[in-house]
Backbone:
């Protein structure tokens, strides 16, 4: 039986763990996700990126200690 992937906020966090959780979900490096997100936010006048981050911070659940979520391996 395969475990279903679930998007949750990560313990690998700078602010709220949203971008770290996105990186774990897709199996990529969290630093690259953060750099791309900040770059796109700045290029789009920062407001839409900040608003999206706040919405995701409110909607994406935090990873709990009893969650049976397997973290994806980072492909190098």
Residues:
């Amino acid at each position: 039986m395969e475990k279903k992937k679930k998007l949750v906020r990560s313990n690998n966090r700078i602010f709220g763990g949203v971008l770290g959780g996105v990186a774990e979900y897709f199996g990529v490096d969290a630093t690259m996700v953060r750099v791309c997100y900040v770059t796109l936010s700045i290029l789009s006048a920062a407001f839409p990126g900040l608003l999206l981050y706040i919405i995701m911070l409110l909607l994406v659940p935090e990873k709990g200690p009893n969650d049976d979520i397997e973290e994806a391996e980072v492909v190098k």
Notes: The CA atoms of residues 28 and 76 lie 9 Å apart.
